[in-house]
Amino acid sequence: AHARNVAMAFAGWGIPTAQALRQLHQALPTMPLIASGGIRDGIDAAKAIAMGASLVGQAAAVLGSATTSTSAVLAHFAVVIEQLRVACFCTGSASLSALKDARLVRAGDEE
Q1: What predicted TM-score, i.e. pTM, was given to this entire model?
Q2: 59, part of any domain
Q3: Residues 6+ apart with CB under 8 A from 20
Q4: How many CB atoms lie within 10 A of CB 28?
Q5: How many domains does the chain have?
Q6: For residue 22, how many C-alpha atoms fall within 13 Å in the half-sphere facing its CB?
Q7: How many Å is the Cα radius of gyration of the chain?
Q8: Are 29 and 23 in contact (CB under 8 A)?
Q9: Which pLDDT band holds residue 107 (cuts at 50, 70, 90)?
Q10: Mean pLDDT across the chain, nearest whole number?
Q11: Is the Cβ–Cβ distance between 50 and 43 less than 8 Å?
Q12: Is residue 34 included in any domain, yes or no?
């Protein structure tokens, strides 16, 4: 109960990765940015790249595979790579670099 009470105080701590990335990219458009935190799969990575990230870091999503085997880690990244390829295709981006120019629509935004 004690640990839970301590942890609950931090439930709203910090800035969501997408919000931080958007604000940083607007303030420093030429600065290379690394998105990390909450990147669960290739779709999250694609969104981060489209919002201006130069690199994407993944930890929690990989740790489960890492405790299993090297082949599980390789399988995880094979899925991430395929998800990135599909995201590029769906946005008409020929590469991850081109994904930075993809048009994004936030959920709830009107066109």
Answers
A1: 0.80
A2: yes
A3: none
A4: 11
A5: 1
A6: 9
A7: 16
A8: no
A9: low
A10: 90
A11: no
A12: yes
- Print the domain residue range for 66: 15-99
Nearest to 62 by CA among 36, 96, 97: 36
CA dist 83 → 4, 47, 79, 93 (Å): 35, 11, 6, 13
- pLDDT tens track for 42-61: 999 999 999 999 999 999 98
On whether residue 63 sits in a domain, the answer given is: yes
Residue among 43, 62, 41 nearest 51 (CA): 43
DSSP secondary structure, 48-108, as one string:
HHHTT-SEEE--HHHHHHHTT-HHHHHHHHHHHHHHHHHHHHHHT-SSHHHHTT-----TT
Residue 108 pLDDT: 63
Is 110 inside a domain boundary? Answer: no
Torsion region of 67: left, alpha or beta (phi above 0 gives left; psi -120 to 50 gives alpha): alpha
